[in-house]
Amino acid sequence: LAVRIVHQGASWLDPETAFKVLKEFRRLASQSGEYARGLRDTLIADRQGTLELHRSYVDAVGMLASLQEQRMRPDELAGKILEQTKRVFRCNSACLLAYNRWENKLTSWASSGFSDVLIAAISQEVGTALENGALPAGTVLTVSQDKVRSLAGAEEAKDIDEVLVIPMMAGDALVGVLALAFGAQQKPKVEERLLLVSLAGQVALVLQNAALYRDLQELAVAEERRRIAREIHDGVAQNLVHLMMKMELIQRMLEKDPDRALQEVVYSRAILEQSVQELRRCIQSLRPPLLTEGS
Predict the structure, then answer these.
(1) Predicted TM-score of the model (pTM)
(2) Residue 182 · residue 142 · CB < 8 Å
(3) What distance in Å separates the CA atoms of residue 193 and residue 196, rounded to the nearest whole number?
(4) What is the pLDDT of residues 179-237, one digit of tens each?
(5) What is the 3-state secondary structure (H, E, C) of the chain?
(6) pLDDT, tens digit, for every residue of 104-142?
């Protein structure tokens, strides 16, 4: 374009002016090339960062599935989840707060880097948002550094630029919230926030399943205890009461009828041996299978 203008304007442009025009066009073209290369490098870096983020997210979801298969306790599982979440989203600290719908309050499930003061401050802020209906599913509540400072003090807000709070929903039920604290150089982008919302839903399901499995285990243990208690009451306990009555009878018969007293002793011993066998069977049923096989 510059060469065309120079050639077409040769009749009304003197050589010196034409040379200046051509030089200016070259400078603009050079700047445009540098801008295009910079833009290309930026896009490539952003694309690589996005790919790395998605790869880490896929790894995190795979980790959740792996942890769920290990049948951990909910509190232990929550700690593992927090460490993986901090690694993927490069945040300073994180915590999981469980929601008790009966008492309408949040309690700490697990924390990594969050102080008790900061947890209480975030719980207060989330509680206010819940009362105002400002924390529906799929949203991210942003707690600014100034808000953290006013709630928890300047010391707690020193290394925090913002805290993101994401509700963990299982269907329409609120299971808890995931809170992540970021520094000034760590603030997540829009797509990272969307991934956080998706991850929070996955975490809610995993933790809810872990809690249900724990409850089922506790119910199974309680039912087994009731069964053993019934067996002991109906078997061993009744036999022991019967033996106590036999001992009193034998004591009275020793002087009057020693032969019959001896027969009662033999009979009582048989009852005692039976009771011992029942106790051993109850104890055997309480032993772990691996311990039984090893012995």
Answers:
(1) 0.59
(2) no
(3) 5
(4) 999 888 777 777 778 878 888 888 888 888 777 777 887 888 888 788 877 877 777 77
(5) CHHHHHHHCCCCCCHHHHHHHHHHHHHHHHHHHHHHHHHHHHHHHHHHHHHHHHHHHHHHHHHHHHHHHCCCCHHHHHHHHHHHHHHHHCCCEEEEEEEECCCCEEEEEEEECCCHHHHHHHHHHHHHHHHCCCCCCCCCEEEEHHHHHHHHCCCCCCCCCEEEEEEEEECCEEEEEEEEEECCCCCCCHHHHHHHHHHHHHHHHHHHHHHHHHHHHHHHHHHHHHHHHHHHHHHHHHHHHHHHHHHHHHHHHHHHCHHHHHHHHHHHHHHHHHHHHHHHHHHHHHCCHHHHHHC
(6) 888 888 888 888 888 888 888 888 888 887 777 778 888
The DSSP bridge partners found for residue 177 are: 97, 167
